[in-house]
């Protein structure tokens, strides 16, 4: 019995060398102002989640800009807490619990960064990439509140395991976390995305930390087109990404499918099915690749603006090489912002939605493919009445540009708030106001991540084509507007469009010898010359086209107004 007690005493009193995740970053106070109650200074809290005392001698805290000086020879006992801060902050924080000041304590970014805790040998013990968006309310994002870990048993779980403190002081340094509770994590890691480091090296990212030994096997990953993965390596400090090396260089702009058949997280959850992503080698976009496809500039209460891009080209595009801004009435560009800092691929045929608040987007609209929504703070101001959006590549070349106006909406909408403007045909000019229409009410007034409710493609050999032979201007978004496309091989045509009742009475002159080019679009909203709605029935559209050579051609089209 005495031997057992002696063994237990030695076990408890003798500090051990910590293994990964035995000590964790437990609380982060990155934005102390405006103060809710805690001192106006940055700090983090660490916790020993093991069953043995651990020596912290020589340990350091680092971020992207550098690392702190070493910790002194102190012991962190099981389930105990320690506040780490700058030397100048020790006095203010010591009243809250055990506190150690570090020389060169990292400056904590308000909007998030990677923090890494390393032992004296430089090994990663714990790392976390926190974000201001982990806060639970907009108010707490403004400062004065800490981010707390919810369940210390899940050190490799990221955002789901962190949230704002609910302590009235704004945080709980040196005390048990105010939001602590038991979480149930039975979900395996999810493969989020991947990108190329070069033609033979790929990086794939997961949503949580992985079992680094179990995942570092090339046999767990497969690549299409008879390419093989010959090396796999799980990377520190977060251990949420795996670097893969291929047996042969990949071709530019060829879309490959990467599949993993098994992956395990740090607590042992293993995927029971394969996961796949698209990957490849990107190239720079030009004016033929990307279209501004949908825009919401007057969001509902509590909502957020959004912009949808459509990839109509054949290239793989890296969104970290795309920038957005607006343009003044005088023509000068505003502040240019990069869409994202991390490589993220945009594939042919995809829609991509940019917004500052993806949660608000999903509250207000049906989002068919959430993975095609990107949170970004890069969007410029989009005023409710009129504004502009410019998309540029990394060389500063304008890829697409739109100057919108709220008057482009369907004229008989009861309210424009919460209604997105949709592009009708991606092949027509972006700035053509007749190529934009309000999203249909039947789809909730917006179609982020999916085909526009007003989509029509005019691919035809006809000189005059109508979007439909039925016009139903009742405001439901279906055939509310008749789109007329006129294509000519000659330039400098003059066009007259007159609309008659079936009885022969002229009710509207839509164009009177308008000078147009080779590809022109007109819209008719079902109103007469005085702006009154026309009755249901048949109407004849008479087209007269005068060419530059003086040749006159005429054509008739029949349209039915249904109400």
Provide structural commentary.
The protein is mainly β and 563 residues long. It folds into four domains: 13-164, Lamin Tail domain (Immunoglobulin-like); 191-279, Immunoglobulin-like (Sandwich), CATH 2.60.40.1220; 284-457, Sandwich (Immunoglobulin-like), CATH 2.60.40.1260; 458-563, Immunoglobulin-like, CATH 2.60.40.3880. The protein is built from five helices and 39 strands. The chain is elongated, with a radius of gyration of 31 Å.
Task: Describe the SSE topology.
Layout: H1 2-13, E1 23-29, E2 43-48, E3 54-55, E4 60-63, E5 66-67, E6 75-76, E7 81-86, H2 90-93, E8 99-102, E9 114-118, E10 124-129, H3 138-141, E11 147-149, E12 162-164, E13 191-198, E14 201-206, H4 212-215, E15 221-223, E16 229-235, E17 241-246, E18 256-260, E19 275-279, E20 290-296, E21 306-311, E22 317-318, E23 322-325, E24 337-338, E25 345-346, E26 351-355, H5 358-364, E27 373-375, E28 386-393, E29 398-405, E30 421-423, E31 436-438, E32 464-466, E33 470-471, E34 482-487, E35 493-501, E36 506-516, E37 519-524, E38 537-546, E39 552-561
Parallel strand pairs: 7-8, 26-27, 33-39
Antiparallel strand pairs: 1-2, 1-11, 2-7, 3-6, 4-5, 4-9, 9-10, 11-12, 13-14, 14-17, 15-18, 16-17, 18-19, 20-21, 20-30, 21-26, 22-25, 23-24, 23-28, 28-29, 30-31, 32-34, 34-37, 35-36, 35-38, 38-39
């Amino acid at each position: 019995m005495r031997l057992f007690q002696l063994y237990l005493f030695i076990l408890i009193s003798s500090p051990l060398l910590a293994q990964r995740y035995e000590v964790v970053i437990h609380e982060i106070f990155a934005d102390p102002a405006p103060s809710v109650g805690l001192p106006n200074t940055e700090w983090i809290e660490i916790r020993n989640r093991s069953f043995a005392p651990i020596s912290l001698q020589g340990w350091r805290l680092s971020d992207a800009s550098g690392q702190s000086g070493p910790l002194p020879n102190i012991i962190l006992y099981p389930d105990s807490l320690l506040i780490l801060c700058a030397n100048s902050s020790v006095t203010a924080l010591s009243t809250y619990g055990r506190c150690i000041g570090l020389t060169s304590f990292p400056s904590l970014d308000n909007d998030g960064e990677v923090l890494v805790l390393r032992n004296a040998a430089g090994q990663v013990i714990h790392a976390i990439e926190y974000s201001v968006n982990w806060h639970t309310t907009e108010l707490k994002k403004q400062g004065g509140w800490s981010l707390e870990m919810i369940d210390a048993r899940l050190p490799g779980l990221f955002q789901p395991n962190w949230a704002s403190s609910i302590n009235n002081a704004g945080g709980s340094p040196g005390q048990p976390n105010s939001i602590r509770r038991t979480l149930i994590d039975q979900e395996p890691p999810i493969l989020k995305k991947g990108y190329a480091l070069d033609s033979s090296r790929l990086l794939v990212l997961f949503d949580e930390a992985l079992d680094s030994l179990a995942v570092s096997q090339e046999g767990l990953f497969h690549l299409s087109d008879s390419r093989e993965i010959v090396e796999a390596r799980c990377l520190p400090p977060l251990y949420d990404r795996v670097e893969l090396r291929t047996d042969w260089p990949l071709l530019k702009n060829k879309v490959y499918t990467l599949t993993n058949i098994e992956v395990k997280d740090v607590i042992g959850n293993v995927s029971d099915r394969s996961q796949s992503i698209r990957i490849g080698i990107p190239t720079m976009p030009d004016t033929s690749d990307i279209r501004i496809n949908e825009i919401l500039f007057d969001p509902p209460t509590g909502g957020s603006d959004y912009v949808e891009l459509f990839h109509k080209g054949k290239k793989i595009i890296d969104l970290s090489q795309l920038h957005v801004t607006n343009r003044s009435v005088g023509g000068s560009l505003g502040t240019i912002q990069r869409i994202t800092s991390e490589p993220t691929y945009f594939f042919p045929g995809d829609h991509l939605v940019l917004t500052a608040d993806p949660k608000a987007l999903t509250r207000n609209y049906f989002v068919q493919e959430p993975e095609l929504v990107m949170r970004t703070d890069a969007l410029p101001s989009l005023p409710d009445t009129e504004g502009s959006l410019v998309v540029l590549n990394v060389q500063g070349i304008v890829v697409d540009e739109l100057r919108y106006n709220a008057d482009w909406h369907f004229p008989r909408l009861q309210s424009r708030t919460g209604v997105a403007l949709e592009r009708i045909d991606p092949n027509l000019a972006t700035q053509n106001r007749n190529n934009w229409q309000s999203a249909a009410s039947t789809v909730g007034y917006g179609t982020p991540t999916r085909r526009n409710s007003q989509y029509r493609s005019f691919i035809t050999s006809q000189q005059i084509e109508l979007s439909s032979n039925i016009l139903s201007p009742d405001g439901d978004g279906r055939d509310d507007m008749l789109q007329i496309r006129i294509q000519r091989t000659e330039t400098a045509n003059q066009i007259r469009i007159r609309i008659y009742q079936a009885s022969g009475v002229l009710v509207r002159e839509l164009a009177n010898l308008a000078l147009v080019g080779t590809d022109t679009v007109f819209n008719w909203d079902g109103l007469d010359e005085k702006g009154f709605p026309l009755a249901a029935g048949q109407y004849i559209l008479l087209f007269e086209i005068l060419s530059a050579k003086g040749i006159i051609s005429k054509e008739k089209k029949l349209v039915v107004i249904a109400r």
